[in-house]
Amino acid sequence: MDDRERLMRILDGVLRRVRFREVILASDRPAAPSGAFTPGRARIFVLLRGCRHFEIGRGDRAEELRLVRGQLLFAGATAWHRSIDRVRNSLLSVIFDPEYTAITWKAFVPGPLAERRHPSVLVHVPTPRRRGLELAVQTLSELAVESDAGPAALPIARGLLKLVRREMASAPRVVSRPMATWQAVCNHLREHFHEPVNRDLAAQTFGLHPNHLSRLFRTQAGEGFTTYLTRLRLEHAAELLKAGGLPVCDVALRCGFAGGNYFAKVFRGHFGMSPSAYRRRAAGAGGGARGRGRG
Length: 295
Known about the structure:
45% helix; three-stranded antiparallel beta sheet; Arc Repressor Mutant, subunit A; 2 domains; 295 residues; disordered C terminus
């Protein structure tokens, strides 16, 4: 049984046996606190075992959530959340990217190695989202601004999981093992780019030699690991600058840069202007500047 078949069986079991009582919709208000994550892609979380603690924006206030079996948590592309792992648990999450759907199973076990909670199983479905799935994600994202939208959102969220299951079954499989590994590492970086991750830590997470990981990125992406990670961080920083509301130094920290001065230097090298100038241009044009290249 490969990883895709394993995750399809898990999702089948969830859809058959779990009676969902509630879907909780995270929002982008109030402003995300320090340490929170705004991923830029919608996602839905399904608890499989134990309980999982999150801090989320809900309505107009920050709220600590204890997610239990029978509840779903949906976070739109602009919503923020912060995981607060305290007890043993396992969680299924689905990430909706325009180019693929990623289904991840994670387990958390308290102890000295608790921070090493890398995906135990991860599968990419490398196809653009179908229209029905896009509409479901969009509808849930729009309902997140309503204070009493939970009952209306529940059947949509359950239907979304069914669409994901159908997509997993019908999409072509990734036949290249190097490509599958590269996609898994890329998804890991998209999840953790705001943390102090680097090539050696990423290689350790996936059981690879650092030099092999570098070759993998040059072969699959045509750029080095550090270049890819820096570009990912800069793209997210640009979105935060467009949104406004955060000082430049906070944007730097939330995107994984150690300090504001280094961030400003790298940002200028990629976009041709300082972060402050980029923010002013984005506010004036209503769109923003584009990067000059991959960096």
